[in-house]
Amino acid sequence: MTSTIDPAVNLEAKTSSSLQQNPSRTSRRSRTLAAIVLGTLFLGAIIFSPWILGESGLSTVLTQRNQPPTWSHPFGTDWLGRDMLMRSLHGLSLSLRIGLLAASISAFIGTSLGLAAGTFGGWVDAVIIWIVDVFFSLPHLVLLILIAFSVGGGTRGVIIAVALTHWTNLARIIRAEVLQVNSADYIHLSRQFGKSSLWIARHHMMPHIVPQLIVGLILLFPHAILHEAALSFIGIGLSPHLPAVGIILAESMRHLSTGYWWLGVMPGLLLLLSVKAFDWVGENLRILLAPKTSQE
Amino acid sequence: MLKGDSLWFRYGPQLPWTVQNISLAVAPGEVLGIMAPSGYGKTTIGKLLSGYLPAIKGAVSVNGRSLPQKGYCPVQLVFQNPELAVNPRWRIRQILQEGGKLNLAQLAAFGIHPNWLSRYPHELSGGELQRVAISRILNSATRYIIADEMTAMLDANTQALIWQIVLDFVKKQQIGLVAISHEQRLLERLCDRILNL
């Protein structure tokens, strides 16, 4: 019996050493890390730009009205001669901060309800799933407008509306994850090893929930920011004197037909870029956090 | 002595009985085989004996006492599919440590390579993972092992290797082993006694 065993062991020793010499492993990992760092830096720069750049360029300069993009004004100037790059950065910074706040509240609601539904089951699960279904059955933007309007609009209205409407997907994902992990053999085995429920939650459940939460939260940001911009654009969001990106885009509509394309296109591009950056960071974090891809 | 006393089990009140009036006993150091074709409730018996499922009628006892609700269970079950028995987000080191301290000599005997320890389960093959899963329960707190088709998915070489180490351990530590399988020839090789369902 023993003589037949050795070749099998040798064979496995060989395959395991050849696996380790895979040259693309480190490069894939560092590419993912680089993408996360770059995206985060870009978004950080936008969020903190008002404090870094100050108020310069925001004052009215009537001699430089409606100038198309040049090197001194990369985004052009508006009808009062204000620098559009500065306005866009200020606006986007505000929008990102509001989006972050709303998305974080939303992620918190989603995680709590998802955990509750998955852990307690029974009528708790039924009620939460029913609420989720109600939210899913209504058109998203209509619901946003309804909530923002009913709590009185303004910044508070936008934050509440966005926070209350974006948690449903995350709640469903977390609930599914909890249910799946709870029914797994390795959880039962852990109990047989004498581990407490708290230990199991901490060591078995957390590694499954936390990556879902982080990635879910980051992928929530673009939605929250776009919806905040949309609400401000149609006029029930932030008040017009705030330099939010939705306000800037709404103002630019009046000037688009007169040929001042840069007023809408440039801030729009910047918004698109930052939303894409969130998406990028989220996707790469997912790759980094999932064991199936994290060591490639 | 691990005893199952006239065990009855079904998965729902309306469903037919999966396990009907089964009684069996394993002494420390004894190897008992349970032989039956597919669908005869072999796996269910294994789960009843190891406390994964509660018997509807009848009782499982170890040395006259029922299985403990808390703490390390003296009866441990080895699953047929190791992929389901390990947390996919844990590294092998953590998986092995859940059962107790790492025993490097035993890992070497099982052919568990030290550099597997930093890998994730999906980076090992089924046979490699099953060795990890078995090695995890081979410690002094385990008094009885239920091996449910433990090596059914492995090739003959690995099967022989695994059974040899497990039988060694069982004899040395005076552990009772229940081997559940549909392979008559395997059980005849391994067991002191075979129970045909």
Task: Give an account of the 3D structure.
The complex is a heterodimer of chains A (296) and B (197). With 296 residues, chain A is an all-alpha fold. Chain A has one domain: MetI-like (MetI-like fold). Chain A is built from twelve helices and no strands. In chain A, 35% of the residues are buried. Chain B is of the alpha/beta class. Chain B has one domain: P-loop containing nucleotide triphosphate hydrolases (Rossmann fold, 3-Layer(aba) Sandwich), CATH 3.40.50.300. Chain B is built from six helices and nine strands. In chain B, strands 6-7-8-3-9 form a five-stranded parallel beta sheet, sandwiched between helices. A four-stranded antiparallel beta sheet of chain B has the order 2-1-4-5, with helices on one face. In chain B, helix 2 packs parallel to helix 4. The longest helix of chain B has 18 residues.
Question: What is this structure's SSE topology?
Answer:
The complex is a heterodimer of chains A (296) and B (197).
Chain A (H helix, E strand, L loop, with lengths): L5 H15 L3 H30 L30 H37 L1 H16 L2 H11 L3 H12 L2 H15 L2 H8 L4 H37 L11 H12 L5 H28 L1 H4 L2
Helix pairs in contact in A: 2-3, 2-11, 3-4, 3-6, 3-7, 3-9, 3-10, 3-11, 4-7, 5-6, 6-9, 7-9, 9-10, 9-11, 10-11
Chain B lengths: L1 E8 L9 E8 L4 E5 L6 H8 L7 E6 L2 E2 L8 E4 L13 H8 L4 H6 L16 H12 L6 E5 L7 H18 L2 E6 L2 H7 L2 E4 L1
Helix pairs in contact in B: 2-4
Summarize, please:
With 296 residues, chain A is mainly alpha-helical.
Task: Record keyword descriptors for this entry.
heterodimer; A: 296 residues; mainly alpha; MetI-like fold; 12 helices; elongated; disordered N terminus; B: 197 residues; alpha/beta; Rossmann fold; five-stranded parallel beta sheet; four-stranded antiparallel beta sheet; 6 helices; 9 strands; globular
Give the strand tally of chain B: 9
Total number of helical segments of chain A? 12
The rounded Rg of chain B comes to 16 Å
Task: Name the CATH class of chain A.
Answer: Mainly Alpha
Largest interface: A-B, 29 and 36 residues
What structural class results from the helix and strand content of chain B? alpha/beta
* H-E order of chain A: HHHHHHHHHHHH
The major β-sheet of chain A equals: none
| Low-pLDDT regions of chain A | 1-21
